Amino acid sequence: MIKNTCFKKFYIFFSLTFYLLLTTSCGLYKNTQGKNIPTNAMERAKQNVKEGKGMSVGNMIKGRRSTNYEFSTSNPMWRATLDTLDFIPFSTVDYSGGLIITDWYGDNNKINQSLKITVRFLSNEIQSNSLKITVHQKKCSTQNNCATKVIKSKIEEELKQTILTSAAILDQNKK
């Protein structure tokens, strides 16, 4: 009989405690009355972005840093470079690092020779000193015997002039 009354008391105590926790919600939910929270998911997402809320894998790894990158499509130098080099496949395109590297490109006339072009953006201003263009040449005597070197050629200057001219035109059309 003693066991039965102890069990009943424990059961009643546990039930009341569980009921109280369940009905009061332990204060986990905040009162949202009076706040302007959109019901549409897309509008809530826009509001969260505007307020700087939310998380991403990048923010979790490197922490939140406030950087202000100009969007790549609004940068005339970047767009002009992509337009100029669109005939060559790209191996690396990094807007935040200001770097474009093409894949090896060979002309049909010169089977054993190919070129790779690297464009580094030193500034967003449309000036000749805002770009650094490097051309690498690869010559192969046999299939596994290739030599690679940086070359100075007219290609660098022609590319720079074409990119700067295109960027100036894009910048003028933007205004």
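^ that was protein a. below is b, sequence first then the tokens
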Amino acid sequence: MGRALIGLVLSTILFGCTSVDRHACTSGENSTVSEVIYFGMAKPTGGVVTGAEWSAFLRTVVTPRFPAGLTVWPASGQWQGADGQVVREDSYVLNLLHPADASAEEGIRAIIAQYKTQFEQEAVLRVRSNVCTSL
């Protein structure tokens, strides 16, 4: 009896966890990945990423990897750096919708790596969600 109860509890937990991450899109919707990426504009050596630099980055680094479309908006916020200091800075937020495939994942990683290198950034925040979309 004890083993059966343990087996029932374990299978309930395991099957319950797998169903949490999975959701079915309704008719007319597509399963898609939504990426929200936060790019800080302050340069650690002084100054900021200019509007012209940001536009060029979008044009030459982001758009070639995701030509189907994107949304960008300005933001301001704060984060705590590795040194423990709270940094307040203006940012740009990039939202991309794409299929869940290796090519898109590679593109996102390349965009983040290029931004960190090009603008000497300690971090770029990435928030990834599975969503349903429709047009």
